[in-house]
Amino acid sequence: MDLTAFVAAMPKTELHVHLEGTLERELLVRLAERNGVQVPLPEGGFTDLTSFLAQYYPAMRALVTEDDFFELAWAYLVKAASQSVVHAELFFDPQAHTGRGVPFPTVIGGYRRAVVKAQRELGVHADLILCFLRDLTAEHAMSTLMEALPYKDWIVGVGLDSDERGNPPAKFAAVFARARSEGFLLTMHCDIDQPGSIDNIRAALVDVEVDRIDHGTNIVEDPELVDLVRERGIGLTCCPVSNGFVTADMKAVEIAALLRSGVKVTVSSDDPAYFGGYVTENLLALATAADLTPEELVQLQRNALEVSWLAPFRRDALLAALEAYAAGAVTA
Ligand code: ADE
Ligand code: ZN
Question: pLDDT for 221-248, tens place per residue?
């Protein structure tokens, strides 16, 4: 079987992609010129999460108007359609924009317009997930949550990203409890190889009771956590290409071991404009490094749909389409 063609055409679900991390250099330069702002161009060479974030946030200054946010999300969704993505759950970082004077409605208005247009014109379904920046205060996160409430219908859940060091889940327990009571689903970054990774994953699961974990592969070090994640059917949204940039390797061995032990592992792209791989490239990189079979690649996509935040009717239709694709490809 031609694995590249098989993965490329497989109907795919992406659960971990930061819209601001899809800002490709060409669009960045065009928006910066249009807005008359000086923006440092990302140079790469990241060695960890902190050094990546130091290039990531300054580049966002190119995003100013509602049209800018629309164009960013639209460019991602066009790319996603070209990779046979049928459903995407999209992180966005409002505080990275409101903190420099861009109003919340400008950000979400642009993103929402792209989501609606993608459903109509590309046949790609997408939902937005609001991420709080964990290196800012819990009060700032709470006021951002309050600002988001009028837009509840446009936001499926909340997440937590940015620099994990010194910013454990407990800091945001009250914010996440309030988000849950407002009807949002909950996820949280538990980044790779952080100081206190295991304690933070346990807190996210036991204290905050998240529905999903972004990254989280460090559970391999703790069999009890693996059991807990498996028993609860918690999805891990793994991003192998990103892992290879912010740590020494892509953690293919760990991701594959968790997949093979029955954990609902999924594969996504994180910040593809910075790490150079969209979802197809992430799946292929993992397949090559961990010798995944076509059936395991289908399982990753089955997991993604099962732990997605889609309405059941939509999820079941996409699961049926995935099974039909897999059956057809195997007998072809
Ligand atoms: N923001 C964008 N990508 C991120 C990641 N992988 N971890 C934490 N914060 C992020
Ligand atoms: Zn991420």
Answer: 999 999 999 999 999 999 999 999 999 8
What residue spans define the domains of the chain? 3-331
Nearest residue (CA) to ligand 1, atom 6: 270
Nearest by Cα to 63 from 98, 90, 17, 16: 98
From 17, 53, 93, mutation site for ligand 1 pocket: most ligand atoms within 8 A of C-beta: 53
Q: How much is the pTM? A: 0.98
Q: How far apart are CA 252 and CA 310, in angstroms?
A: 27
Q: How far is the CA of 216 from the centre of ligand 1 (A)?
A: 13
Distance between Cα 200 and ligand 2 center (Å)? 16
- Name the band, by pLDDT with cuts 50, 70 and 90, for residue 1: confident
The string of pLDDT tens digits covering residues 257-308 is: 999 999 999 999 999 999 999 999 999 999 999 999 999 999 999 999 999 9
User: CA-CA distances (angstroms) from residue 292 to 44, 66, 87, 242, 253?
Assistant: 29, 42, 23, 19, 11
Give the pocket of ligand 1 (CB within 6 Å): 18, 21, 49, 161-162, 189, 191, 242, 270-271
- pLDDT tens digits, one per residue of 83-96: 999 999 999 999 99
Which residues fall within 8 angstroms of residue 212, CB to CB, at 6 or more apart? 15, 185, 186, 187, 234, 235, 236, 237, 307
What tokens does 325 get? 């694709």
Q: Which atom of ligand 1 is nearest to the CA of 93?
A: 1
Q: What confidence tens digit (pLDDT) does each residue in 198-225 have? A: 999 999 999 999 999 999 999 999 999 9
Contact 114, 70 (CB under 8 A): yes
Residue 205 is encoded by which pair of tokens?
């699961």
Alpha-carbon gap, residue 134 to 34, rounded angstroms: 31
**3-331 in CATH: which number?**
3.20.20.140
> For residue 17, how far is its CA from the centre of ligand 2 (angstroms)?
6
Q: From ligand 2's centre to the CA of 329, what distance in Å?
A: 31
